[in-house]
Amino acid sequence: MFKKIRKRKIYSRMIMTVLIAMLLAGSVLAAGTEAENPKYIFFLIGDGMSSSQATLAEYYNQFENLEEVNHDYEEYGESFIDLKAEEHSDRLMMHRLDHAGSTRTTGSFTLVPGSAQTATALATGVKTDRDTIALDLNDKPLKSVLIAAKDKGMATGLVSTARITHATPASFGSNVPDRGMENEIAVQYLENEIDYLVGGGARHFLPGNNDNSKREDNRNLFEEFADKGYQVFESSDQTAAFRDYTPQAGDQVIYTPTMSHVSYEIDRDNKLVPSIAEMTAKGIELLKQDNEGFFMMIEGGRIDHAAHDNDVATTIHDTLAFDDAVKTAYKFYLEHPNETLIIVAGDHETGGLGLNSSEGMEYDYFMDLAPIREVKASIEEGFEYTGDREQLYTDLKEDFGIAELTEREKELLENAMDLQDAKGRGADVDEINGYWPQATWISPVQSTIAHITSRRSRIGWTSSAHTGQIIPIRTHGVGAARYTGSMDNTDVAKITAELLEVELN
Ligand SMILES: [Zn+2]
Q1: Is the CB of residue 438 less than 8 Å from the CB of residue 416?
Q2: 40-352+465-500, which class in CATH?
Q3: 201 falls in which pLDDT band (50, 70, 90)?
Q4: HEC profile of 364-378
Q5: What distance in angstroms lies between residue 308's CA and the mean position of ligand 1's atoms?
Q6: Distance in Å, CA 304 to ligand 1 centroid
Q7: Highest mean pLDDT among 84-98, 429-443, 473-487
Q8: The pLDDT of residue 18 is above 70
Q9: Is 115 a catalytic residue?
Q10: What is the pLDDT at residue 128?
Q11: CATH 3.40.720.10 residue spans of the chain
């Protein structure tokens, strides 16, 4: 009898234990699910940004902030900067996020990808052909994580410092067979009703009879957006109005301060064009009012262009500006830590950027960031050689801090001017100066100046195009731990879709 009672007690205790364990497991699971579903998603993409662009920007940031207190800089060089890094917390925000992983970037048929391809992979989880925007290899339209978030009821935003119709934002908000179909992409944004559209590229929204327009029809998309109830700010004339505007719940916005891309950060006139961080902040102000949460893609689109130009200072300043947008997202995360996910990705590397281009070991593993500080304009927008050599040398001194050239530098530059005088700005400097990467849209003289500045800093470039590196991804917040380890770029979209509990393709 006694034994039996005892046994029953043991049984009931076991049952209780099991029940409690089940309850605990249940609540843990519930909490797990809750914690895995972000309500607010920032998907930040540095176009052309790999670890070398981000590393260089971070070291430059430290250099700028440290030199005043760093009396021994001449003696210790960059290793001294490293030692002081933590103390001054000049690390980029993207490098202070909790989780890190890496992504392969190959396309369907090529090891070295294009932006349409990589953006399609990041947005839809499918690899495709080089210039295709969110279509698979059989031309089937693919649903992006942004459109899936929209279908779920979330508010959506696209921000870019490139044209808003450029490949990266386009892959999140449209489906076309060729990235050049920017007029069609603009129409699809209208049809898909992306709530917040901010970036360059007014020329694809203006009617064809406007001199600045690139449209072949006479549709005025700004008017059509306005008819749908959008707040429309169609040029830098409305920048002040955009800044004064206080978003109300349910508002939709389109703002395009420039005809083509937004200026490089180094050339940007803040009165006319807001920073990418400001564009992001206004987007948050609007989209956070949606009860279902939001999905916002923010592209630092011109890091890529600067790297195509092999323009070291411009690459750095655009990367730092992009990092400020990461900071803006992070500030929002601090207010909503249990509901926010931040993803900071690159799409591919551009330029084959190398940190130290010494031609021999005699330079002793050294970079010199000081010459970069003297640069006051981008090579592309801030400088053009028009045949006046005296003017060129004045500009070099005033805008690029190059007062005296070495014999070799002078020879390279004079060669480039001779070539440009003879064959025009479309000539390829490679013809005269040996292997010397040059983006097709910059002149021999512009390219030569870019390389002089880079070499003075011991920064090397192996390409004027993209390269095939595996690149880092950083994440923070709800679900962020999922994006770790060695991934493919398509995994990023797949994981994001799982966190959103949506089906893609
Ligand atoms: Zn590119």
Answers
A1: no
A2: alpha beta
A3: very high
A4: CCCCCCHHHHCCCCC
A5: 7
A6: 5
A7: 473-487
A8: no
A9: yes
A10: 94
A11: 40-352+465-500
